[in-house]
Each structure stands twice: as C-alpha cells, then as structure tokens.
Structures
1.
Amino acid sequence: MVAKKTKDDSPIGPTGRPYQGFPIPAPLKAHGPARIIALCNQKGGVGKTTTSINLAASFAEYGRKVLAVDFDPQGALSAGLGIPTHDIPTVYDLLLDTKRDPREVIVHTHVDGLDLIPANIDLSAAEVHLVNEVARETILSRVLRQVAGEYDVILIDCQPSLGLLTVNALTAAHGVLIPLECEFFALRGVALLIETIDKVRDRLNPSITLDGLLATMYDARTLHSREVLERVVEAFGDDVLETVIGRTVKFPDASVSGVPITEFAPEHPAAQAYLRLARELVARGAVA
C-alpha cells in the first residue's frame, strides 16, 4: 500500500498523507466508563460487521475491556464471534424489558476482554414493538448506561438502514465510525448518513461526534479504488482515517471459523491493519 514518499522521505499512505506508525496504547490502570461507538452505514456489504469484530478484538488485545453489541437482526456479529443465538436472551429482550439486567444477556466470547450482547432474527420485530413507546429513540441508551462503567469501549454494529434501530444506536453513542467501501455507489449514501447524524445531534444527542470514515475493501491495483478513496479524502479531509482496510479472502475464512482475523491469521496485513486502526483511534482520542 505504501509507495510514494514526501520530500523528507516519509512514505505516503493510500489516503495521500504521510504514513504514520501509531504507538501501542499504554495499559489502563482502571476500566470504564466506556465510550460508545456506533458503526453505521445504510448501505450493506461495506464491512461494518467485519470491522466491529476485528476492531473489538484489536482493542481487547491492547488491554481494553470491550462490549460488542449486535444490533442487526441478521446476527452476523454474533455468528462471526462463534456465538450461537438460538434459545438465548438477546438485545431484543433488553429493548422490550428495560428493567431486565443486561448482565443476564451479555455473553463472554473466547477472546479475552471481549464480551457480546447477541442478536438474532427476533430483532427485526423491534421497530414495530417500539413505535408506540415513549422516548423510543433512547431505549438502547438506557440499556447500555447500566453496564458502561464496566467497559472501556462499547461498539454497536448497526443494521444497514436508517430506521429506528439505527437512530437508537446513534442516540446512545458518543461517536460514529462509518465504514465505506472503496466503490462509487458506496459514496452516494454517505451524505444522507451524515445528514441523519446531524439531525440526531440536533434533536436527541448533542454530544455525538464523527470519529471518522474508514475506507474498506480497498484494492490498490485498481484505478477505481484509488479514485474513490481520493474523492473521499477530498470531500471529508481529516475525517477520513489514515488506516485503510484492504480486500482479502481471509475475512470470510475467519468468519466461517467464528474468530477475528487477528486470531485466525495474526500476521496477515488485514489483521495488522485492524490493530493499526485501534491504535489510530486511541491516538485520536476516540478511545482511552
């Protein structure tokens, strides 16, 4: 990925900026309160779940206590972490019964320091059930508030839509991370998503910030990928993260095995990219 160099011989990364080596985060002396980050994009297939799994595992590898929240009825995050979701309580139960203790639903994964609130197809009925609830946009926020003190970061894997579930995630979150496939049609919906974030900030969650846009499925060999990434950087500047996630068959292989790529193939460039992403977000102050 690194090819050109600046005048002072610094390598240039795919985003056209000097390629930095972000430092390994210092260990934490205590855990919590968590910073909540929603991974959103109403377009499907852009790497939200892959990023949720591998970024969560990367934070855990650096000693952070992480809670991943599967907020997609497809349950791909749960499956990607090897957690069966049949006949167990899920995030759907917490939304319908806010007096229920979230700790009854949280599942410990095989990754040290990484816990999960699972989801399954039941979640698809949540919007219908919640539509007549008072303050329906804040229900997830009230659920996560009960356990935020026990974690350093909470990652919410949103479904590919801008419906009530996604608005709940944005209302609960301190920051938003937007995975963006390096493909022309993926660009078209970003403005609508940014507009939705602005509306949530204006009406429901004044403190929400954009933590960054993450370029995914990047293939430096294709002119199209390079041009799309260039246009994203032109449009969003420093909001585009310097870390770029390349396209590789290792991601589906790791998903089938039910483990993050950082465990499935720890030396692979994709695994190293997610570790670098975790370091970059810590360096940017998005996570302690």
Note: The CA atoms of residues 73 and 121 lie 5 Å apart.
2.
Amino acid sequence: MSLAHPVLPSAAAGAFAHSRVTAPADLRGGQGMPPHGHPHTAQVKPHARRPLPLRVGTRGSPLALWQTRTFLDRILHFCPVLRNASAFEEHVIATSGDRIQDRRLADIGGKGLFAKEIHEALLDGRIDFAVHSLKDLETELPPGVVLACTMTREDARDAMVLGPRCGGIEAADPLAAIPAGALIGTASLRRQAQLLHARPDLKVGMIRGNVGSRLGKLEAGEFDGTLLALAGLKRLGLEARASVVLDPEAMVPAAGQGIVGITVRAADVELHELLAGIEDRAARAVSRAERALLAALDGSCRTPIGGHARLLPTGELHLTGLVARPDGSFLLKRSLHGAAADAERLGCELGEGLRADSPADIFIA
C-alpha cells in the first residue's frame, strides 16, 4: 500500500529539463578535496525532459519521513530549477518489516523486509527512487535496483537508554550501571551478542517498533533498558534520552548505521547522475567498506555481525568488523586500515579473515 503526498504545489511536466546540480566536490565522491577543506564546485550535466513530480518511496515511521524530507531538502538546495516546482511526491509504503512486530526479523526473513515492498514499487515503476536507512538494506539488492547515493553519516554509535532500576553511569564501565539479572530490550542480535558477551548475567527480551514505541515500553517498566542507534535519537530530537553513548570499538555498530541510502532503477541513468551530484564522499567510502565486509561474511540473518568504518585524519580508512554467536559465547572482533580508495578490498579482506577464523556453524542459516 502506498499513500501519495505532494510535497509542493503542482508544476508542468518537463520542469526537470536541463537541470543542473552545483555541489561541493566533497559531496560528490569526486576527485579530491582542496587544501584546508575548502570545496570547489562541479555540475551534473543537463538531463533530458521528464515529467514531474518525481515519486519517492519511503516507510511511514517518523524517522523514515524525517530522513526522506531532509534528503529532498538537500536536492532542492543544490538544484535551483526544482525549487519552484512540484518536484517530488512522497509515497508512504507499508513494508513487511513494519507490519510484523511480534517476531524478530531473523525469524521472518531478515532486514530486507524493510525494503521488499518499496523495491517492488520501484521496479514496477510506481515510484522513481526510494529513501532508506542504509543498515536496513540487504547486501545484495534485487536485480535492476542499485544504490545510487549515500548521504552524510550521522553519529554511527549505539546508545543505551536505562530505566529507574539502573544506577549512575561510570565512564570507565558504562554497563556497570545495569543491575545483575536486568532485562534489556532489543531486537538486534548484534547488540544482544555484544551485551551478553560483556555481561552474561543479563537477560534480553525482544522489543520491536519505532523509536517512540520502544521508549514507551521502557517508560512503562517492561524493560530495564534498551539500546538504540544514536543517529535516530538525534534526528528525532531525542538525543537527551540517551543515558550513555557507547564507544563503537566496544559496541560495534551495524554496517551502514547512521547513513541514508537512495536506491533507483539501474536503467535510470538521469536520476542516478542527479543523485551522484549530492552524494557524500566519506559516506560512500565507509559504506562500501562495511557492505563489502557483510558480503564477504555472507552470514545469515541469524548471524550477529557488526561493521564500522571511519576516515582517519590521514585520509586512510579504519574498519572494524565483528562476528559472534547470539548468546555471546563466541565473539571475534578485528580491525584493519588502508587507503580509502581500497574500501571494498579492505572490507572483503577483513570479512574473509573473520569468516576463516570463526566456527563454521555460526554461518549456517
């Protein structure tokens, strides 16, 4: 099901003709950045005539809508010809991942269920492009769909939100604030595995839903604490709800966490070129490394996997990868770094090493 919402008043077909995007080079994934971080500019070449509005597919959660509208504002900022036209129309699409809330994603088909119906709409021509949380995209996209653009990464770290039974936070050991035997709510096997590896005395209960509903369950006393992506809290203005933000080397985030990704039909060259003009180069590099890590591990949706890449001040890319058992009884974590231009190779190399040195049963579906 999709619900269409025009973003601006209607405009005549063809307003997209000969549009140009002027964007800083560091947002384009282009050839380098001038000294001292001052960007030069470049333009996307003019495009052929096509009717407006462009139809954008999105999930309907408050966070998904925030991400979609922020992304569209970004396009309008860099594409003046679209500012005074009805350039975009939102199509809210209910996904299987949103409808089924009483089971883990691992039990119903994996995180790709947050994109399945959206990509069906894309391939059917009902929408022109789609906005996603990159961590919710499967590693191998459906034939005919490509990841065309990655936006500037928000803070990739995980945050703990603790209830009244928990004590004060100690910087040296944030988990010490959680009392023995406490019940922590999470639907993420990655978070569960790392939490139980560090604190096997804790209990983990399944909690699903959007950010607001999870916080509501915590407030209702159903759990003693929960873990959420800090990026989502910040985007929704809820950052103050975080009791503590966890170091990404201690609690390795999900691959793609904090990044908004845009998918289009592979054959839609015009739209692909438009989106390339606003892509964030750093996000592109780290996402390529993290998704290559996932592809090399080729774990099932029941395999806890973490991946976090960041660019160092030297310009090199540092990548941390993690594989574990859901109960935390096994956890292997390693890092490597190299040239950002070799992001995919680094991800593949680290993933292959983690896979080779992990028990084979971890990767059985």
Note: The radius of gyration is 21 Å.
3.
Amino acid sequence: MNALTIAPSLLAIAIAALISALITWTSRPLLQRYALARPNARSSHRIPTPQGAGIAVIAATLLVASAWAAWASVAIPPALVIATIVIALVGFADDIVSLPVLVRLVLQAGCVGAVVFTAPETARIVPALPLVLERGLILLAGVWFVNLVNFMDGLDLMTVAEVVPVSAALLLLGLLGDLSWPAALIATALCGAMLGFAPFNKPVAKVFLGDVGSLPIGLVLGWCLLQLAWCGQPAAALLLPAYYLADSTITLFRRVARREQFWSAHRSHFYQRATDNGFTVPRVVAEVFALNLVLAALGILTVRAGAMSVTLIALLAGAIATGFVLRKFSRPQAS
C-alpha cells in the first residue's frame, strides 16, 4: 500500500489543520485565564496575550500522524512520540511557572537523548566517527535545535513562516521517495497543524504557541531533518533550516563574545533587530518566508541532482541568500 501519495497527503494536511484550529479556538478562553504572556525584555508584543496554543499544534500533529501511520502500517518510533509529549509538558510547566535553566536543559536533553540513542545503529551520518561520539554530537545539536526554535518564536507568524516551507519540502521529498515514510508523515501532519494555527497567530496575534509548542515542534522537526541526513542528504538537512540556524547561532556567538548572559531574555536576534530598525512585522515574516522557499528549493535540488558540484553551489547560494537577509535585517530602514 503506497499511502504516501498526493491525495492522502492533502487530506492529512486538511484534517490536521482543522483539528489544530478547533483546539486553538476552544482553548483560548482557558489560556487567557491561566497562561497569559505578559510583555518583557524579549517580547515583541505590547499587550498581554494568551500562550499555549502549541498544545493544539502538537495534538493535531501526533493524532493525524499516528492515525495515518496505523492505517498505512508504518511504524513511528514510540520514543519520539513519548519524548514529544514529555517535552511539551516541560514547556507547559515553563509557560505557567518559569523553570530554572538547568532543569529545563536536563529535561530537554533527556527527551532528545531518548530519540537519538534508540535509533538503529545503522543510522549514520559520518560512519568514520565512533557511533557513541556521533550520537553525542547529534544530542548536543538536537538540544540546540529545540532551543533555537524556541528562541526564534518571538514574532507573530514567525514559526509558521519557518515550519510550513520546511515541512512542505520534507513532504515533497517523501513523495519523491527521498525521505523515510515516518518522517514524511510527521512533517505532513505538522505542516497542516501549523496552517490551522496560523489564522490565530497573524499580526496582531490572538494567541501564541508558548514553550509547550515551540519545544516539541523543535524536537519533531529536528527529528525529521535528522532522518533526512540519515538518508544520505546532510546538505539538504542543513539548507532547509538555514535561516533559523544562522540567526540563532550567530546571535549566540555575538552575545558570548560580548560576555553577556546569553541565557537571559533579549532582543538581539536579527529578526528582532529588524523590527527595531523600521521593518514591520508582516514584512519581516514575508522576507523569512520567501527566504525559506528559496532554501527549500535549493535543498530539494541537492537531493534530486545527486551531484557534489550542485550540492556545493546550492550550499553557497543558500549561505549568500541567508546572509543577504540577515544583513538587511541588521540595517536601519530609510525613513
């Protein structure tokens, strides 16, 4: 049975979007009462806004992906499902009562480690490295990816502008046979769930994802990208999230170099500086969305071409495109 075709994929997207939108709409009054995000040093919003709608996104993603996988006799790793639920609970607790940094990191590392170290030993990116060393490096990268998705979720529709193009590209790669079915099913369901959440998060947002959404989104999206790398496509796995990787990592290094408390709330990400430099929120989101479409096209090109020369050119083009947007965001707009 070939469940990964266009018609079932579109149906899965529609169902996930509907479930996500319905849960978001019905949960807003409760979130308004118990999970209100008040403006702070990191915030881009000016009025208290309910957070925690990530519950809807993750619920829709897991429900649709699991049901689809059961119908198609495809196995989604139980460790991934359990870790996603646990890290969502960690995020929910942090949304309600702020958890200490060390506690958050330990719990996140446990969730990422459960996914990474239960994977088959045949899943390798650099076979020349000892398996335990490679898995350890993937663990560190996974914890960073989970957190950077959280860090970048600081502007209306920003996470939608990132996740939808990346997950849609992963779906396309699955349809083309270049990505494992479990990863493609999850990416498809996540794409639909984010589309269902989008109307509630457009400027000015009525509700935010919260850590209960951004952390598990980082986990499942990172796992899908890891699956792509394990399928022999590490260049595509880097190109698809290149903007998030560049913005967060460069910002982290800059803060460390300035001897700032890099773990504390701040507004020094490029997308945050863009709004301080005269960009409107819709324009920032549109620029990021357009860049992600370019990066998705380049990532798919590297997979389909299968040539080292094309891969190198695509990586260079992706770096130039990402650098162009980052530089634009960092410069004041002419009045």
Note: The chain has a mean pLDDT of 93.
